[in-house]
Amino acid sequence: MGNSGGGAAKGPDRRGDGLQRQAPTHPEIPAEDPMTAKLWFAIGVVLLVPSSSVAQPGAAVVVAKVMTGAAPCGVVAGAGAIWVSNAGEQTVVRIDPASNEVTARIAVHNAPCGLAFADGSVWVQTAAGVADRIDAATNKVTASVPVGRDSYDVQVGHGSVWVTNHRDATVSRINPRTNRVRKTIHLPRGIQAAGLAITARHVWVGADVTSSIYRINPKTNRVRQVRTRHAGPGWFATEPGSLWVANTASDSISRLNTVTGATLATVAVGKLPVDLELAAGELWVPNNRGDTISRVDAKSRTLIETIPAGPQPIVIEAAFGDIWVTHLAGMAVWRIHP
Questions:
Q1: Whether residue 192 sits in one domain with residue 66
Q2: Which of 23, 176, 226, 246 could lock onto 261 through a cystine, CB 3.0 to 4.6 A?
Q3: Beta strand ranges found along 187-312 (DSSP E)
Q4: Residues 328 and 200 in one domain
Q5: Is residue 65 part of a domain?
Q6: Is the domain of 207 the same as that of 102?
C-alpha cells in the first residue's frame, strides 16, 4: 500500500453499547383467569425472542489502540501475529493479538508500507526500490530484492510475489525461491500503478489517476486494459468469487466481474477511499481524507455504519475476529470489534 493524501485528525472512539431490550408491558391480568395469563405469557415470550431474519449487525467497537511507531501504513496477519509497517521510521513491528503488545521491531528499508504474508515470510514494499523479506520464525530480514521506482503495493499469488512500481508504470514479478525478479511487466506509459489483487485466474493492478484497471494473465504475463465507470480505481479487496475496487477519485467502491473486470455495482462511501478489506460478507473501507471507515454490506450494497477513525486511515486487515486499521498520520493501529 502506498502513501496517500490526508485531512485533519479527528480520532474519537466509537463505542457501541448496543440496544437494551426491554420487556413489553401488558394490561393487568386478572389472577382468576389462568388461561388468559398463559396467553399473555406466551405472547411475551414471542416478543422477547429475537428474529434472525431481521437481525442487524451491532455497532463496531474500538477495543484497542496499539502504539506501533511513526506513520503506521501496512498491516497483515500471519504466523499467529499482526504485522504493521511504520512508514515514518523504517520498521515493521510484530504484534501479539492475545495481548495487543508489540513483541518485535524489525529494521527495513525506507518508507515501508504494503505487506503480504506467505509461506512463513512477510514481504515488505518500500520506497527504496527494494522489497524486503522477513522470516517470521526469526524476525529477521533474509532478502532485499531490487524492484522498480516508488513501489506501491505487494501481493502473493500464482507462485510469485508481485510488486507495483508507481513511477515506472511496471509490475515486478518475483520468484520467491530465488528472491529475484523473474519478469518486469510494463503497463501503458504514464500509468501510475497502485494496488494489487490476486484472483483465481488473474492479477489485477489499480491505477489511481485514471479510469482503468489492468488485468495480467499470470501464465503469459500479458496485460489487458479494462475501463471502469469511475475515476481512480486504485485499491482492491477480494474473497473467493468477489472482487471490489476503491475509486479514490470518485469517493466510491465498485464490485467487479472477477473474470472480465466489468463494473457490476457501485456504492458511495467517504472521502478518498483507499486500501479496503472484504471479510464475512462486509466491506471495510478506510476513507483517508474523511478520517472515517465505511462499513458496507456486500450483498445488499448498503452502508451499515460510518465509524470515526484516527488521522488518515489507510489500510485495513481482517484477522483474529477483528478489524485492524492503520493511520498514516498517527502512531497506532486500531483494533475494532465488529
A1: yes
A2: 226
A3: 193-198, 203-207, 212-217, 222-227, 233-239, 242-247, 252-256, 263-268, 277-279, 282-287, 292-297, 302-308
A4: yes
A5: yes
A6: yes
Question: Does 116 have pLDDT greater than 90?
Answer: yes
49, 188: one domain: no
- Confirm whether 15 is domain-assigned: no
Q: Nearest Cα to 211, choosing from 136, 261, 283? A: 261
pLDDT tens-place string over residues 165-174: 999 999 999 9
Is there a domain that residue 92 lies in? Answer: yes
Residue numbers of the domain that contains 104: 56-337
Strand ranges, E, within 41-80: 61-67, 72-78
Average pLDDT score over residue span 172-197: 97
Strand order from edge to edge, sheet including 81-86: 72-78, 81-86, 91-96, 101-107
The structural domain count of the chain equals 2
7-66: per-residue pLDDT in tens? 323 332 222 222 222 222 222 223 333 333 333 333 333 333 333 333 456 899 999 999
CATH number at residue 262: 2.130.10.10
pTM summary value? 0.83
Residue appearing with cell numbers 477483528: 322
